[in-house]
Amino acid sequence: MSKGTTHGTHYRRARQSPRAEPQYSAAVIAGDTVYFAGQVGIDPATRELASGIEAQTRQALTNLTAVLEEAGSSRDQVVKTLCFLNDLADFDGFNKVYAEFFPDAPPARSTVGVALPDGMLVEIEGIAIKGA
């Protein structure tokens, strides 16, 4: 992960997630807290958007996992997620995959319907604690 520092806060760009555009960081570490930017269903190796809500959710959570690991955290340390769905009718498929990634003691979560661009069906952001 590349990083920059401002006022003791570390801004990170993950190597194993879709490239963060210049105007945001994949994660920001402030003290022992990791704030991770929204992850979507794009495969970082191919830059291809996965097809369907379950595949996009799985890829977004895989990307999220890579960002967390590079920031010194893990999915087990996630305390809050904010999930955006392009269509709330996709909630069941999204929730099925989400439960696979957070099977025990899932983090607090909010899920809202929004208009996502470019065929994206899901985006997931959140907050984690930096690993001990």
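That was protein one. Protein two is written in the same sequence-then-structure order:
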Amino acid sequence: MIRSHLLTALCLSLALATPGLAQETPEVADELVLQAEGGEPATFDLEALKAMPVTEFETSTVWTDGVIRFTGVALADLLEDADAEGTVIRAMARDGYAVEIPVTDAVPGGPIVAYQMDGEPLDIDMMGPYWIIYPYDSDEAYKAKEFEDRSIWQLKSLTLTD
């Protein structure tokens, strides 16, 4: 009986303590790190990204219903601002998922690092705080699966390599 109560108390203590350990502070959660392999990292928070030239487009996606307006920073502008060079971008999500994006994708009218969807911030528990989105409806080529695969959400870092 005492053993059962002790086990229940231990489980309850762990359950109550765990959410506090798992939560990230907003200052850390909304940072995007960009670096060239072997170089010094550049860190962008939401305010820094919003201070850059804004790119918006409307497009449908396989993950959302209907046409959505995405707002963010053009991937080309972000790479230019950070003066980062390489041929491949390794994009990593908060959960460790990673994709490789050719730097040649970072063109005007191409993908953005979105921070808003229909004027609302991207929810950190869903697709946010940042999501690489291609303007799928602007060009049939962007509807290819390879571009869907490169559309990483909960983006945490971008590393340029050769």
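Helices lie at 2-22, 26-29, 46-50, 75-82, 145-150. Keep this in mind for the problem set.
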